[in-house]
Amino acid sequence: MKQTITEYQFIEAFRHAGRETQFSVNARRALFAHLEDYEKSTCFELELDPIGICCEFAEHPSAISASKEYGQNFDNESDAIDWLREQTQVVEFQSGIVIQLF
Q1: Closest by alpha carbon to 75, among 93, 63, 85, 88?
Q2: 13 domain residue, yes or no
Q3: Per-residue pLDDT for 91 more than 90?
Q4: Angle ∠(20,21,22) on CA atoms, nearest 5
């Protein structure tokens, strides 16, 4: 049995799971949109699993910051984002990025 959820319910699911500090609200909104787009493009329904999402994705203030976690040193955001996109899924939003861990 599947249930359609709203963005608000998605955001709140992290609080109910005790993971509200794992991602900012803006990051959770961006992840919700990204996962909804994924469902639409693949016709595959995802199960809401906040803890699983926390294990699969990480929020960073910038692509440069995220790429440093993988031993890369870029001088500009554009090069760092391009490199990350070659490695994994990147979800951009106004105050940072979320990447799928690899």
Answers
A1: 63
A2: yes
A3: yes
A4: 95
User: How would you class 21 by CB atoms within 10 Å of its CB: exposed for 0-12, middle for 13-18, buried for 19 or more?
Assistant: exposed
What residue type is 101 in one-letter code?
Answer: L
* Domain contains 1: no
- Tell how far CA 78 is from the center of its chain: 18
State whether the Cα torsion 51-47-67-70 is positive or negative.
positive
Instruction: Retrieve residue 93's tokens.
Output: 């939003």
Provide the token pair at 70: 């993988």
pLDDT digits (tens, 9 = 90+) for 44-79: 999 999 999 999 999 999 999 999 999 999 999 999
Q: Which domain holds residue 27?
A: 7-100
Q: Report the distance separating Cα 37 and Cα 35, nearest Å.
A: 5
Alpha-carbon 39 to chain mean position: 15
